[in-house]
Amino acid sequence: MSTGGTQEVVVVIQSQRNSYHARRGEQRKVEILQQAADLGQGGLLRVLLLHQLSEFEGDWSVLPALPRLFAAYGRRASWFFFVEEETRLKVAALLQEWFLGSGLHDDEASIIHHYAFAEDPGSFSYPDPRAGWAVSTPLLKRLAVRLQHGSLKSDFTIDLHHEVALYVWDDGKGPKLTAVAEFCSQRRDGCATWFTTYLPYCGEPVPKTDVFVAVKTCQKFHQDRGEGAA
């Protein structure tokens, strides 16, 4: 990614308000900022925790947060980069001229993607969240304006990153995801990002008596499918 002079790269950690996830997000933020400081690039990198942007609980699905992100940082930033709490960054590589993300696609039509592109599922790519994904400021500006003057088709999210990619594509009026080999889900030579599968201790297991399972179905399936899932 080219930083274009004094403009910033904004890293948004898709954190949650829950104390465990907030702590993990803060740890990742400190780590990223330390890398930037060690490179003498601390002024070019801004790291944000998604859950701290506002009190709106729906910010976790990213799109509702875009207008606030652009209003607060759009004039100073050249890129916005979105990562999971466990996505690792190599800041020296990230500040080079990269594009957008690591692409995933469906091998066959998928119900959770509402059978989008059913005739050719492989024709549409969406970002692998483990590798992170980046949005240029001009694109973020267009999305922010669109969100301010219209509403999302639904406030119900199933697969966040597929739905973000569809919203960006906008029935062909916007860009498709550009795949970048340096955005990685598993670490290898040349990676700018990668994901760690290490799971730190996060407390005692929840008692089974405190676990509630709900089966999403409809009445005509209550007898055969509902009982089978119970």
- Order of helix and strand elements from N to C terminus: EHEHEEHEEEHHEH
Q: Please count the helical segments.
A: 6
- What is the molecular shape? globular
Largest sheet: 4 strands, mixed
Question: Stretches where pLDDT falls below 50 for ≥5 residues?
Answer: 2-6
Q: What is the second-level CATH architecture? A: Alpha-Beta Complex
Count of domain modules: 1
Question: Span between N and C termini?
Answer: 50 Å
Give the strand content. 5-15%
Number of strands: 8
CATH class identity: Alpha Beta
Mean pLDDT: 83
Helical/strand content category: alpha/beta
Helix content: 25-40%
**Within the CATH hierarchy, at the fold level, what is the topology?**
Spore Coat Polysaccharide Biosynthesis Protein SpsA, Chain A
What is Rg?
A: 19 Å
Task: Please name the defining characteristics of this protein.
8 strands, globular, Spore Coat Polysaccharide Biosynthesis Protein SpsA, Chain A, alpha/beta, 14% strand, two-stranded antiparallel sheet, single chain, 230 residues, disordered N terminus
